[in-house]
Amino acid sequence: MTSEKSRYSGTMNGTIFVVAGGCSSHVSDYATAIPTWSIFRDQNYGFVKLTAFNHSSLLFEYKRSSDGRVYDSFTVDLDYRDVLSCVHDHLLSNNYY
Questions:
Q1: Is the Cβ–Cβ distance between 42 and 71 less than 8 Å?
Q2: What pTM, to 2 d.p., does this model score?
Q3: 68 — phi, psi (to 5°)?
Q4: Is residue 1 part of a domain?
């Protein structure tokens, strides 16, 4: 994963979990203590946009609904091995659709 924050950097083998939600954004405040696993907090309504690039990169962007600006983002890169190329690319190259 890569990002401007050092907590995001490094190589990891495993599942990445992202909790993103804001349906009750103004109902209550956060606790004063920020847990070590909490990287970013926002009390505004927002959404997540995922963009996949070239079979091996996934861009995660958190945007506020009010202005559409990106307030947090990171990219997950995978060492992609095209295990389906013999099936998928073959069909496309022969115009079977």
A1: yes
A2: 0.56
A3: 75, 5
A4: no
pLDDT in tens, 15-41: 777 777 666 556 666 667 777 777 667
Pairing state between β 70-77 and 46-53: unpaired
Query: Strand order in 46-53's β-sheet?
Result: 46-53, 57-64, 70-77
Total structural domains within the chain: 1
Residue range(s) defining the domain that contains residue 75: 6-93
Residue 44 contacts by C-beta under 8 Å, 6 or more apart in sequence? Answer: 22, 25, 64, 65, 66
Classify the phi-psi angles of 37: left when phi > 0, otherwise alpha if psi is within -120 to 50, otherwise beta: alpha
Cβ contact 26:41 at 8 Å: no
Say if 53 falls within a structural domain: yes
71 belongs to a structural domain? yes
C-alpha span between 65 and 78 (Å, rounded): 29
